[in-house]
Write a structure and sequence with these properties.
Elements lengths: L1 H18 L17 E3 L2 E3 L2 E3 L4 E9 L9 E8 L6 E7 L5 E6 L8 E7 L2 E2 L3 E6 L1 E5 L6 E3 L6 E8 L6 E7 L7 E8 L5 E6 L5 E10 L7 E2 L3 E6 L9 E2 L4 E2 L6 E4 L7 E7 L7 E7 L5 E3 L9 E7 L11 H5 L1 E2 L3 E3 L1 E2 L1 E2 L2 E2 L3 E3 L2 E10 L6 E7 L6 E8 L5 E8 L3 E9 L8 E2 L3 E6 L21 E4 L9
Parallel strand pairs: 3-10, 12-19, 15-40, 21-29, 32-39
Antiparallel strand pairs: 1-4, 2-4, 4-7, 5-6, 5-8, 8-9, 8-10, 11-13, 13-16, 14-15, 14-17, 17-18, 17-19, 20-22, 22-25, 23-24, 23-26, 26-27, 26-28, 30-33, 31-33, 33-36, 34-35, 34-37, 37-38, 37-39
Amino acid sequence: MRSHKMALAIAVAMALLTLAPTADARPARRIFFPGRCRVNIHVAPRQITAGDPVTIFGRLACQRHRGEAGQVVKLYHQVANSFGYSYVQSTRTDAQGFYEFTRADGVVLSNRSWFVAARATHSEARRIRVAAQVALSGPAEGTQLLTGHPNAVTFTGTVSPVDVGARVILQRQDAATGSEWRRIDRGFVQPGGTFSIPHTFIVPGDANIRVLVRSEGRNIPSASNLLEYEISQAQNPALTITASADPIQFGQSVTISGTVGGGANLPVELLARTRLQNRLAPIATVTADANGNYSFPPQAPVNSTFYAVKAPNSSCEGTPGVRACRRGLTSAILYEGVRDVLSAQVSATTVQAGSQLTFTGTVAPSHPGHIIYLQRQNAHDSGFHVVEVALVNPDSTYSIAHRVYDPGTKVFRVYIPGGPENQGTASQPFTIQVTPAPAAALMPEAPGNTSLPSEGSESSGEGGERQGR
């Protein structure tokens, strides 16, 4: 049904253009013979983030190749939530009938359809899906966030193009493979394109946070950048626990230390568990010094780990039968994030427009089947957005192929998002020089050349949306 409506809209537009010529064209005087000439259209990429450039190309083909060279090709588009097509610009075909338009950075900001007209014929329409550019801000990454209402945090951000009233869904990553997102809170885009969402965490552990903006057809569901945090419980002042660094990289070590209130020379037990373990289990014991301070030998966890410590309650001397005294003191749960180590290479740093780049590398520790992203730098700031989604191979290597169509200087990086097992990390940026290519050399974009992360679930996460996670 949609394709019929689109075809009808193009037919109406062409009829109007024939009856009422615009200032850029004279009335058509030659007679159109059906089948004499045909023109096609390709749009690449078919899916972009607002502000990215778009290349539109194709060929005018006529019988016996007569009249293909030097012909005017007019480009028309229909912007999302508008009626009818409007003229955009014109170009001329080359000697073989090929043509090309480049819509520059910052021009295409919303969903739309395109078609071209030449020699009294027109192409079919091609749609382009456009994600809004969404920037999310919060506490500095690496900040140790704490559970509970007194430790609530506020996430803010911007949406471009401005889409007042669009829903903004605050999500937390909820799978070891980095592929599932659950709603934990929500808000709306305000005038000026801003949003603000206060949130309280109640579950310690990893917190990979993003927002997803849902508009009413203007843009496709649009994900923001990711923010990565480690959520721990608020401290027990009678038995504190801290880490020398949080997070650490895989292969590095961390020292767990703290203080037992009035606990001179008391034994202190370190307990730990990973995501796959149900209970904290003891892994080491030390004795606090005369001031109640303790420190364990360096730990080198492979995966992100929950830590806690236990010690006798010094205030219970002489009352060992009291239940609280039998249990002793237990610290808050400390979550120690372990960041993945990522290597990355690219097949070339200078390519012709329309050529394919291949990014390869490894991830440690091993993460077979984990989501991994190819990201491109935003058009007007230093942030990055996803242009390709792939999976880590069984041997923890990856290979991401991506075809680039617009000439100029482009910056890419590889990014593996974090999850319950490990924190994510990004590769070094790669600066790619893309040289122009003749229209005849451009090939249609293959399916899957551009892809975006999962939209995630609308259902609230563990603990419910009101309580948060």
